[in-house]
Batch of 3 targets.
Target 1
Amino acid sequence: MGRLKKGNGQHIEKHYRSLMERCQVRLDDMDRALPAAVEDFSTVLEERGVSRRSFLKWSSVMTAALMLPPMFEPMVAKAAEQFNRLPVVWLHFAECTGCSEALLRTSYPNIDDILLDTISLEYHETLMVAAGHQAEANLEKALADFPGKFICVIEGAVPKAMDGKFLTLGPHGKTGLELAKHVTSKAAATICIGSCSSFGNIPAAAPNPTDCVGIGKALGISTVNITGCPPNPTNFVGTVLHYLLFGGLPALDALGRPIWAYGKRIHDCCERRPHYDAAEFVEEWDDAGAKKGWCLYKMGCKGPYTFGNCGHVRFNDGMSWPVMAGHGCIGCTEPAFWDTMKPLEQPISKDTIGGGEKTVDTIGTALAGIAVAGIAVHAVGTALVHKNKDDK
Ligand code: FSX
Ligand code: SF4
Ligand code: F3S
């Protein structure tokens, strides 16, 4: 048994060593291939008052978040230094722009935010100055300058009804469907940011008269889905770092979400969980239990049915997250949560209360079946850069 364990340890170490070598080659290749940075990242950090020590601390936290052992920390740091050289084309369809707001605006920027601030956006409809013909020319230039080398990020669902005419953009009135197909077919990979582009979400909520859907479904392509309404910036940054490190996207669950970020239930990393286990529930907003931080299950918390790392990474520089702020999770990382998780402030089924633990944990175990062990997360990484189904 002891020999078996030792053998396994050696096998894992060998695996990580070869992964590190691959990663080193990849980072050197990227160094040669990526366009020069507009601003040197170390200078940016210095200007924003971030010490080298804080940056290295962040690299170590991000390495752990990506389920990599500490030996990868220098490489994660190097990938972060390349982050602002990766060309990104960012499209907006049917949505509220809350995802861009969550990612790009913050009062106390941490390193994730600085990375997002300096991202090389070749095209972003709500941030760029250009409009009309000039905007369209910028987009075409980016596609021509970086064919197969840029990341396409999409925010928002696409309406399919009336041949997509519920959403048209630009001086030639292209539909979201046409634009999405045009841009994604030339991208190295497509990342759907937020639950709208991932699954349709609120624009697709019943009765969905515009027949909104997520990008993967609309175009029949594989996308990496950074879900949440809005999603956590760390999950986007980590996914792009993974791409820079391994030349591929991280292993995904059955819904296209990176397992490193969405492999666990909200319920399993919740600070109120001991109260759930002790059957200590908030029964009314602002009752004694609410003041003591008891479990919000009876107030409709959907943490038991929802996958994400909100309780670990939190929002606003790790300041808080919905459950910590006193409201239950509404399941915003899950498909069609607006329709399937309602009523949002009541449990899905009253029958589960009291006898809830068994029901809730049975659901959790079944859902967790889609997650895999950490080592496999990186082993399959390179296979996941998508191609449109009709591409060769
Ligand atoms: Fe959707 Fe993002 Fe929710 Fe809003 O753009 S994920 S409605 S936070 O803004 O797409
Ligand atoms: Fe936390 Fe909600 Fe689970 Fe209660 S039900 S432990 S509040 S995730
Ligand atoms: Fe969304 Fe629930 Fe996290 S509502 S932000 S998945 S805690």
Target 2
Amino acid sequence: MKEKKLTTENYKGTRDFFPEDMRIRNYLFSIMKQVVRSYGYEEYDGPMLESLDLYRAKTGEEIVGKQIYDFVDKGGREVAIRPEMTPTVARMVASRLRELPRPIRWFSIPNLWRYEQPGHGRLREHWQLNVDIFGVNHHAAELEIFSLACDILFAFGAPRNSFRLKVSHRSLLDEFFQNGLKLKPEQAHDVSKILDKKSKITQDEYVSMVQKVVPNNNDAVTLIDQFLNSNIANLKEIPGISEDSYQKIQSLFSDLESLGLRDIIDFDPSVVRGFDYYTGFIFEIFDTSPKNKRSLYGGGRYDNLIGLFSHEELSGTGFGLGDVTLLNFLQTHNLVPNLSNENTVFIPLLDETFFLSCQTIAKEFRKHGIPVDQALVSQKMGKQLSYAEKKGYRWILLLGEDEIAKNLVTLKDMQERSQETFSLEVALQKVNEQTKK
Ligand code: HAM
């Protein structure tokens, strides 16, 4: 009987990144980093494993109860693979609270793990750009974070009408539940979890879930609908909403107008956010194409996370942008560039005895920052050219007996379908010029 082989399939909900996928991932990360750094944010990183307690405190029951990958280590400690980065960044900031100059502007692109049912825009392992600013109590932090979030999409070439940023404030929901619907804290908590899930369930399921939590209020569903559909103009008519909360929204949106962002940002009280730590403005960014329903970004202000580790409180505001949802967005809007290997120069080996001469030339190109793939065994020219074509190389550097004797190289441009013999310096210059284009 034949020996059973192991599967080459990757674990459910994860991705193998082959070189062509890695080129895309690196492209995504490089644009993200470029924009975030242009706002003065500095990169940090943390461990993939944290104590489970870190998430028990404020991450919320959906993730901690159902989605977290956790285990007990050999020393009996309860450990979790990070499902999100916010508790880690809060822990790290709290550990140096006194030393760090404020405001603290940090970013990171961690891989995160959640035991989810994989689907479009939803995997078990994803990478997430996290951008957070700490120590700014004014909504200037939100203005910066929103403008940075939009600039990332613009840097990928996104048209203004391809996405929308939707904002609400936690106090609206709190006041409406507490003073408008007169819910007890546990009921308010349960209804907010139902609202967070609303887009993923049917209307009937939604209504029966709300009625189960609020059995003695027949108007609850109607009032919640009124709240969810409210706008800035009629927000004051919603029962329970205070003048203070209304002013917060009003003033943020008037500044967004001055910033020139009002046309892509909506006030939307249906933004709930599933995490327990948010205390202020909360927001999400959505693709306007109905193909991508899942949010690209999710974020908000959290005032009490640092306080889990320290006697001092420090307000943080930030977001997570997922690589899976971003790529879906870019693909939907035809914004993924053709990322080939074309800048690499290929040097075929026409005869074993030319190997050292080829190597000298390869070194010279590499010294000038041009990547070179040098053939290591001599094969028929056709085979070597077909290899270069499959790899997507544009440049082929031919070194034959004649070229070596005269100190020249023949440069073949696969894109232009041309070929010319030059001195090494001219060949270098030609490749360099074309590459910069
Ligand atoms: P989140 O809403 O859970 O927020 O995630 C942010 C974004 O990450 C989502 O909008 C989505 O694009 C992506 N994402 C989340 N889960 C998955 C998944 N299973 N598969 C693919 N993409 C996913 C947070 O994690 C907050 N900690 C963000 C934050 C940072 N808030 C303040 N600072």
Target 3
Amino acid sequence: METVNQKPNIRSLSLAELEHFFTSAGEKPYRARQVGEWLWKKSAWSFDEMTSLSIEIRKLLEENFNINHLTVSNQQVSSDRTIKNAFRLYDGNTIEGVLIPTTKRMTACVSSQVGCSLTCKFCATGKLERIRNLEADEIYDQVVVISRQATEKYSKPLTNIVYMGMGEPLLNYQNVLQSIEKITSQSGLGMAQKRITVSTAGIAKMICKLGDDKVKFNLALSLHAASDEKRSSIMPINDSNSLASLKDALRYYYEKTGNPVTYEYIIFKNFNDSIKDAEELARFCGVVPSKVNIIEYNATGDGLFNKADEDRTMAFRNYLESRRITAKIRRSRGRDIDAACGQLANKFPSPLERG
Ligand code: SAH
């Protein structure tokens, strides 16, 4: 890892702190708001771009701060038009973010941590070590870059953001919420809270915290099995966050926010694809108002799991619908470039392999 320039990251300062910086330097405090606008609303990555500020002020900022922006270090486009980006962070670490275009939507899938600590058995990111949390501005930058790709490549604005890239967002709670604050604020990107979904492997305590904070964005829980024994065998986090504790947390969350919850359920061949599994899931769905996304399994190269057969998948979905549960089958996107759910592992082809 390279040496990092030690000047503070200007985007980690609050408006009040920036005002204080300007007044201590003998400048007018309103400069802080101007700079804030450049940093967030206009996503400036250099002080030079801040043309409404005098050269002296730009120099003052340059001497005192860094803008720790990321850069796109690699990009792949799938045959289904999904774009996977490798983002190089200011300290040399790499993460990934994906643009998923469909007929109705332009969705950005963003990472919240470098690596992940949860070791879910079916997930490629789970095989990487957790290195560190992303800062709010690093999450924000992913959205800005992917949003530009949507308009430049597909002539459509970004419609949705999902925190389903690398990492566990609820283990980076404060920065994730701060990033959402900036993405939705009028002084940032001005996107609607309802267009944002945070997906968690299930940290009961933090689901309750979302309730206390009365969040307005959507919550998705990666369930994948509705019995503790099965769930623990594929998701070690279930040992300390049992289904009973998740149910309690979800009730609390719903009581506080009134938001329904989405359950993600990867359907694995001969593991969780029987009608008995569907019955257990249906019972779990009784806890709070909810819907289910049945997710096709994407191979991660270890041969441990297989994609469920089509007829079993349909029977599973039909059973849930017979129990009046809304269930949709989510087809995989970007699989040919390892951009699909669970495939993000910084595996870009080397320049020689690229065609
Ligand atoms: N840590 C968060 C967000 C990242 S994972 C979470 O667990 O929800 C985003 C989604 O992709 C989760 O539902 C996850 O379970 C799913 N996923 C992981 N590996 C997958 C795979 N190999 N195939 C399909 N979906 C996968």
